[in-house]
Amino acid sequence: METLWSPTKTGDRGGKWFLSVLALIAVAAPILNQAVPASSPAHLSAYGITLIGKYLCYGMLALAVDLIWGYCGILSLGHTAFFSLGGYAIGMYLMRQIGTRGVYGDPVLPDFMVFLNWKSLPWFWNGFNHFPFALLMMVVAPGLLALVFGWFAFRSRVTGVYFSIITQALTYALMLAFFRNDMGFGGNNGFTDFKDILGFDLHSDLTRVVLLITTVATLAATYLACRTIVESRAGRVLHAIRDAESRTRFLGYPVESFKVYVFVFSAVIAGIAGALYVPQIGIINPGEFAPINSIEVVIWVAVGGRGTLYGAIAGAVVVNYAKTYLTGAFPEVWLYAVGALFVLVTLFLPRGIIGLVQTRTKR
Amino acid sequence: MSARDKKLELEGLTVSFDGFKALNNLTLSVDPGELLCIIGPNGAGKTTMMDVVTGKTRPDSGTARFGSGNNLLEMSEAEIVAAGVGRKFQKPTVFERLTVFENLELALAGTRSVLKTLRARISPEQDNRINEVLGTIGLSGRRFELGSTLAHGQKQWLEIGMLLMQDPELLLVDEPVAGMTPQEIERTSELLLSLAGEHSVVVVEHDMNFVRSIARRVIVLHEGRVIAEGDMDKVQGDPKVIEVYLGV
Ligand SMILES: Nc1ncnc2c1ncn2[C@@H]1O[C@H](COP(=O)(O)OP(=O)(O)OP(=O)(O)O)[C@@H](O)[C@H]1O
Ligand SMILES: [Mg+2]
């Protein structure tokens, strides 16, 4: 009966493919790293494990942006702010786990605070020695910021390019704030030199494998959650808002509430992605807030295929793979390459890589 | 009939855009079950009147009441819809990237909150209702096609269908037959006539033959005010009307 009334539901082959690839990574990567000896060419190094983990975190960030941009027409150019906040939340926990193993050996204060001659922990660092609290904050911090920001912006009916501009301003302002030493987040060095998470050594291969599997599982779960949303009637309301916002309002839908909800949900996904990213990469600093990063995320989504969810994730992986390669080979061309890519995709592939694949397979 | 029994009551409404008065002390009322036609030259303020009733535009002065004691000027667009006012826009706007069926689904009366729409399912009765409306608007065969594929007249019909799904007490219909073929126009008048009685209907239209075919009471607007009122013959014979509108 459901397939009868929802033609948009049919043909989700792409989603099945995507989930199969995730399952394959979750099974194959640990085996190739743990069971295959390091001397074998089939061995997957710790570096490789971390690289895949990083790409998947970016994929999750792209998923968050696609949910609001592809389905509801909200173009956020500030999503790395939420990503970074999630990263800082887990970073605070990791800093407190260092304990006496820091350079100054202070049992409570992280090194940068000792260096700044601080005598005690700022109040907002309380609780971060507990992992569950850090988990809570990586959701609450980005979610709350998105709620307050979205509430004011959407209530005042800020839309389109104006919304994009103020989200850029938001992430820029946060970057400047986090650069300041007296904010208590380590200034321009941010957090690094992490030792362990929940007692497990962050530098061991096994911990890295577990982090990767956690990332894969979280990505699959958030993807399924997003898909459930876009396939529900609420998802069709989001489509409607993108197509004709004021018409949706005159059907009686509280358009602002829909936008606030989906914006907050998207920000939380971005925050979780950031929190998975930091322990694998081993560093978080204010550079993550840089406005250009948020623009790159939008490019990943456009390249993959806006409004497809898994396409956005694929776009993030493909573009970042290219980036890893290009910045290694010719570092100075990356910004031009990504700009050119965006122009090409906008002009010739309005539905991204996924659109291209779909038209090919239909023939 | 006392004032309380009116379905819609507008009194002394004034709307200015940069000093220009789109509505100028407009007063009119609609009875329950009545089909009221509003005509008037371009820029007379017909659409602006609907904008005020649906909460899109707030007037500088005046009052607007709906049913028993709803003060429309203090309600949001969504609250006004929930209270039972539906509108068809002058420029048809259907959701282009949703199917015809999904357009109607979103217009279904009831569920509007975020969390409820997340879990909403179409009940068999609602499915029947949608199919019934699809038949009424002649789009049964195109239910799974995207809104963007419809011809202009069909979009008008889909808009009317979306209005029917909401089952409002008061229907505001702005230029329903623009772009329709003569057969489509005829079906539209049949439909609007069948709706009156159970619903109050306000139709704005330039097509005089169409207005004549459905009109009982006609109101003529000019420069934001009512200049004549009565049945079609009376209005068409009114010298003021002839001067500003029909005569030219
Ligand atoms: N948002 C606005 N800002 C400025 N002027 C406006 C606005 N909306 C309407 N007007 C002006 O108010 C006047 C009344 O417009 P309205 O759309 O109500 O006319 P109408 O009777 O519906 O005309 P038509 O038959 O052409 O649809 C017009 O002169 C119009 O230009
Ligand atoms: Mg008009």
Provide a descriptive summary of the structure in words.
The complex is a heterodimer of chains A (363) and B (248). Chain A has 15 helices and four strands. Chain A has helices at residues 2-5, 13-35, 46-72, 79-98, 111-115, 131-155, 160-179, 205-231, 233-243, 245-250, 255-281, 291-304, 310-329, 334-348, 352-362, and strands spanning 191-192, 196-197, 200-201, 283-284. In chain A, the strands form two sheets. Chain A has a two-stranded antiparallel ribbon with strand order 1-4. Chain A has a two-stranded antiparallel ribbon with strand order 2-3. In chain A, a hairpin with a 2-residue loop joins strand 2 and strand 3 (200-201). In chain A, helix 4 packs across helix 11 and helix 8 (205-231) packs across helix 9 (233-243). The radius of gyration of chain A is 21 Å and the shape is globular. Chain B has 248 residues and is of the alpha/beta class. Chain B has ten helices and ten strands. Chain B has helices at residues 46-53, 77-83, 100-107, 114-119, 124-136, 152-166, 182-195, 208-214, 232-237, 239-246, and strands at 8-17, 20-30, 35-39, 61-66, 70-71, 85-88, 170-174, 200-204, 217-222, 225-230. In chain B, the strands form two sheets. Chain B has a six-stranded mixed sheet with strand order 6-7-8-3-9-10, with helices on both faces. In chain B, strands 2-1-4-5 form a four-stranded antiparallel sheet, with helices on one face. In chain B, a hairpin with a 3-residue loop joins strand 4 and strand 5. In chain B, helix 3 packs parallel to helix 6 (152-166) and helix 5 runs antiparallel to helix 6. In chain B, 44% of the residues are buried. The mean pLDDT of chain B is 91. Chains A and B meet through helix 9, helix 10 and helix 11 of A and helix 2, helix 3 and helix 4 of B. The complex binds adenosine-5'-triphosphate (ATP) and magnesium ion. Magnesium ion (MG) is lined by residues 46-47, 90, 174 of chain B. Adenosine-5'-triphosphate binds at residues 17, 22, 40, 42-48, 90 of chain B.
